[in-house]
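[Meeting: bench + compute handoff]

Bench side (C.D.) handed over the final construct sequence. Compute side (W.E.) agreed to return the predicted structure before the next meeting so the bench team could plan truncations. Sequence as handed over:
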Amino acid sequence: MKKKILLMAIALMSIGITNTVMAQATATQSANASAKIITPIDISKDADMSFGNIGIDGTVGTVILAASADGSRTEGGGAFLPATTGTVAAAEFTVSGENSYTYTITIPTGTHTITHTNATDVMTVSNFTSSPDTNAGNGELSAAGSQTVYVGATLNLVASQQAGTYTSLTGFNVVVNYN
């Protein structure tokens, strides 16, 4: 009888050990991977910068063109703005991309030269500004994924500026990047 009790005790212990081993099972769960490729940021030119008609009184002068849709100008020094304005416009660009994303705007920091049709006389354009303002940090695309950017600047005239039309031989760059 003692043998049967001993065998039964051994059998019960092995069942207990087996249950303990069974309790150490592993668990598995799977996860999916995903990614979203956003719409690339893009910039397109809608209008070139034009300071319009300008007069000079024989002394150094400037004309500041605002970075705005209204094409407002301010004269300084020997420059004056005649009643016949000609074409006046800030450079205008459309930035497009992913809805509601913010981006940075980089405009020229140096000078840009415009040349007379005689290919000899020049004027410089400097102090570029933008709206939205690059100093404020960012532009933000609308819910539709676009925004208009205006770029203005200062036109620098010398006292003996030759009359005639001046244009860029190469354009100036405006760069946009997502934040």
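W.E. noted at the follow-up: The mean pLDDT is 90. C.D. will use this when planning the next construct.
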